[in-house]
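Sharing a chain and its predicted structure for anyone who wants a worked example. Both blocks are below, sequence first, tokens second.
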Amino acid sequence: MLASAKAYLSKNDSSAAAIQLKNALQEDGNLAEARFLLGRINLEQGDVPGAVKELQRAFELGYAKTEVVPLLARARIRAGEFDRVLSDFGSLELDDPAAQGTLLGAVADAHFGKANVSESIRIYQQALVLRADDADAGIGLARARIFNNDPVGAEEAVRAVIAHSPDNGNAFATLSDALQVQGKQEEALKALEEALRLRPDNAAYHYTLISQLFRSNRYDDGVERFEAMKKVAPNHPSTRYLQAFIDVRAGRLTEARDGLMGVLKQAPDFLPAQLLAGTVLLRLNDQAQGRSYLNSVLSRAPGQLMARTQLIGSHLSSGEAPRALELLQPLLEAPTNDARILGLAGQVFLANGDFAKAEDFLQRAAKAAPEDPQARLRLGAARLAGGDAEGAFADFESASEMDDTAIQADLALVAAYLRRGEADKALEAQAQLERKQPQNPLVYNLRGGVMLAKQDVPAARAAFEKALSLNPDFLSAALNLARLDIGERKVEEALARVRAIADRNEKNAEARLSLAELQLATGAASADVLATLERAEAAAPGTLPPALAIIQHHLRNREFPKALAAAQKLGSAYPNDVRAVEALARAQLAASDTQQGIASLNKLAALRPQSAAPLIMLADVHRGAKDNAAAEQALRKALALRPDAIDVQQRLAGLLLERGDSAGALKIARNVQQQHAESAAGHVLEAEIEAAGSRWAEAVSAYRRAIERKAGGDVAARLHSMLVRADRKGEADRFAADWLRQQPKDLAMRGYLAERALAEARYADAADGFGAMNEASPNNPLVLNNLAWAANQLKDPKALGYAEQALSFAPDNPAILDTLGVIQIERGQADKGLANIQRAVSLAPELAELRLSLARSYAKLERKDDARKELDTLMPKLQDGTPLHKQATELLKSL
């Protein structure tokens, strides 16, 4: 068998030889020569573990050291066993000079592998003295010199290899590296092409050549070469990685993501694939998984700039400014004049509220890149945030003038003018956009927004339609037109606009999600909304937005088991994504699984250690569960993160007040007043604490201080209420009249006064108040509902119309359904009215007022058994002595 194997080897048939050698070793496992030959074949075929095993066994069986040791050392190098090579063979001397030269080459490889570059160069040179034609040692010397910043010496060494081994593809690949470092791009590419001519099946050569072409902006040439690579190595990780890279360039992010997941399954430590996967996942808004890959890259290559900057950007976009600052610090340890890094630093400091440092870095960025409009644009944003509006506008205008094609600066300028309410100046800035990019639909969509700010609806509609004429799939313009359609009660036209975009591209999940939102807003059936959301999920399977929308849909419809099932599925797929974990927590709490909800919120807090939001949610849950101690603990943790957070301090004051510590609550209110001296919030909090203790005069004084600090109509309404409680009704009425004269469009005070009139059965005053609100803010369903109720009490024939109009804007609102039903029954439309009230109860079965209304309606229609049935359901849920209990008892007696 051994002789047969040798015969096959003489014919270069290694596979047949390996079969015979294995057969021989089954008969006699101590055949040292068979072990050696099989080990050599394994090494040639890339089976490194098999090669190490067989060559080590041949060495132990006493096979000639001059033959087995050099190969065993090479096999161990390829296995990454550098320490083992140095310990076993570092000082070994072989009798044969050529064998010793080969061994020294392997020892030098081991030193190079351990980054002992100078020592590796010394030993490579020794090896080449003993065996000048040792290609591996010559190539090793060249690579070590490249690493040692001696590309010229590297070129010299590898050209010596090529002189005696012109068919060595690895030598030409190494020559390419040496030339590349010297900036000899074209020569480097030619060397790689020669390496590929010699070894057309070598995936590494293909990968390097294509990568260099991409880096040289010869993208089409790279894609052409990639087609050749796919033919020789279609399933190689490098091939699949390059396909993903090409998909990213073409905007096929979902395909790129799927391809990269396959690459990383094959080669989990392939750094370029980890970096690209992180990039793609961030662009797909899968922040958690994207960050995990980028963090993995940084753990192995802390200096990888792209990974670090993308991580910083991700944390900035999620509002995690402290984490972004932490990641930024290594980039600031050494002085830099890189405009990109300086600009990023400015954005990070801006997000952290350090306006001085932000402006400093952004000014340096603008100075480092004086022709870069983006740098000037970011500086303008920083100045605007810091209160320097004039400086900001100057920067925006400068950025706009610097770049006569890009439009970001012009967009910022338009937005800034709109925020200041200067619509005419915004329109002038928008005209610059039209001059720069007259075929860009975004430009006309923006014009439509400016025209809406000017209350010119026809002009706005014309601008949005122009945007759609340029790009029929421009979703933003279609949505703007749909909203105008809805305002004109053209619901079907509105839905058709967005549905057309979704139908033209089944993969357009965003269009489906937008369609679902419109369906919800226009009163579509719940099943229809869900069907649209499910099509969005099918369009982008495995992505978060559709799944989150479905969970929210089930929660909104009180389908808590379905919401929980969907949230659990999403949580399993994205266990570390903050949005998935938050959705799971909300579903668990809605399904009354409080402990699991608390566990999810604790996990959310761990995933967002610098955010107070999860802790606030946790505190609210604990308080709802009557665990005030745990609620207070969570709030104090949140306050440690955000010491000046008003919402946290308001909650904490409420807890202290609940346990009778009004002094502690007032201390918090005074602290808020010191932290936010120009804000009304601290004084409002003080007023509410005083009111809770029935100290009406003190509450009035605190509310007045809040009004002095520009508090709104809701606070004005509370001040009126306190004055009434303090038996100062005349003063209260004078204050309300003065307020409405000064603030005629304030709906909060008007609504409060109208609600008060309604509760006191002053229906004429209520109708006047709600009527004025309807004129100021038409099409508000709740205002129309209250106007309908008041008008009905006055026997106004318009009441039914108001109620029907309210329902058209909010078709699933139980209160509106009840109002309309009551009015319909009184107007002789018994069947319609009863159906509406029954639907109201089905939508909100826990609202006692609605069930009592249904019982009254049955009684009015002489359906006494049905009325008793409703009251039997209702009465056990009512507390003795309450107004509802009294009304229900009287109705039951009347039956």
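Comments welcome. The chain has a mean pLDDT of 85.
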